[in-house]
Amino acid sequence: MPKILHTYRYTGRPWEILQSVVPEGYTIKTLDEPTYEQLLKEVVDADYLLVSGRLPIDKGVLDAAKNLKMIQRTGVGTEMLDKEEIKRRGIPVYVNAGVNARSVAEHTFALMMACLKRIPAIDKQVRSGIWKKQETGTSCFELYGKTVGLVGMGAIGKQVAEYLHVFGARILYTDLYRLPLEQEERLEATYVPSFEEILPQVDILSFHCPLTSENKEILNEKTLSIIKSGAIIINTARGKLIDEVALYLALKEGKIHAAGLDVHYEEPISINIHPLSTLNNVILTPHIGGLSFETFHTMMKDAIENIIMFDKRDFQSIENKVLKL
Predict the structure, then answer these.
(1) Catalytic status, residue 267
(2) Which pLDDT does position 103 carry in this prediction?
(3) Which listed residue (73, 107, 118, 287) is catalytic?
(4) Is the CA virtual torsion 209, 220, 242, 248 positive or negative?
(5) Exactly one of 197, 267, 294, 319 is catalytic; which is it?
(6) What Cα–Cα distance (Å) separates residue 257 from each residue in 9, 139, 140, 146?
(7) Which of 29, 59, 76, 324 has the smallest CB count inside 10 Å?
(8) Which candidate in 73, 170, 208, 238 is catalytic?
């Protein structure tokens, strides 16, 4: 019976959902503890890896995985994969691009609105008995007419742009690849060639790009110095796109109005040593943008279906899901 190893640890409802989409004839195992040592132990007899979390799939894991036929990501990020080593061994990697785009876009939009309307801080005030209607209301802002800069215009960025367009925001975007003119016209989105060029123009800056060696800490002390004063920062992409110390200082000094962060430099964050958690103009969520119930179920179902198709040697059905290493 082929063994599918989930390379992190699910419990409770997530584990129940994953188990429910695995058909008879296959066994699914999640790690007893989310550690590299536990991964090395369990991978020995695994036929397929269902990769989630941040444990590296590196030479050590691949050396131990004597039966490994294929790697399937639950999402689309690949920073935990040693691509060169995987490519050298000829092990195919599959992803389901865009499967969580709507969920991440909705979470992005929710963070934008929560920052503009100061929802968490005002909720806390009301619960503590503070009722300052006019003073509180005039400290909030509308999305209509604001200039939003999207860093990355893939499936998620385009979905965010759809929402922004409906709300009357002005949309700028920067990406390695420009959209076709008809898509730009439909979204009323304007292409900006460089990250630095977009910064002085935006009221809200939102990240929707993968993490690479070239863009690590792209938002840093230098780039924050040229961003429009009073801007809002939203990140639902990858935490290491931002120098968190520089962002903390910009928020504390008032250069940045607010930040909504679903992803973080290190995950999970440690509240005791995480300076951003001390600021009331920062909203933090635990990397849940792509994990609504509907999306999580679809992600697990599609990932397992890819594995089953591969096991049945029906490569044609999943040829558009293989990752080019």
Answers:
(1) yes
(2) 96
(3) 287
(4) negative
(5) 267
(6) 37, 11, 11, 14
(7) 324
(8) 238
Instruction: Enter the tokens of residue 246.
Output: 């520089």
Residues 6+ apart with CB under 8 A from 81: 51, 56, 57, 71, 73, 93
Active site residue 287: yes
Q: What is the pLDDT of residues 226-245, one digit of tens each?
A: 999 999 999 999 999 999 99
Long-range contacts of range 12-21, CB-CB < 8 Å, 24 or more positions apart? Answer: 14/296, 17/296, 17/297, 17/300, 18/300, 18/304, 21/297, 21/300, 21/301, 21/304
Dist CA 23 CA 5 (whole Å): 14
pLDDT tens digit sequence for 275-314: 999 999 999 999 999 989 999 999 999 999 999 999 999 9
Which residues in the chain land under pLDDT 50? none
Token pair in block for residue 61 = 């894991």
pLDDT computed for residue 325 by the predictor: 85
Return d(Cα 251, Cα 278) in angstroms, integer: 11
In this structure, what token pair is assigned to residue 289? 């943008």
**In whole angstroms, what separates CA 265 from the centre of its chain?**
12
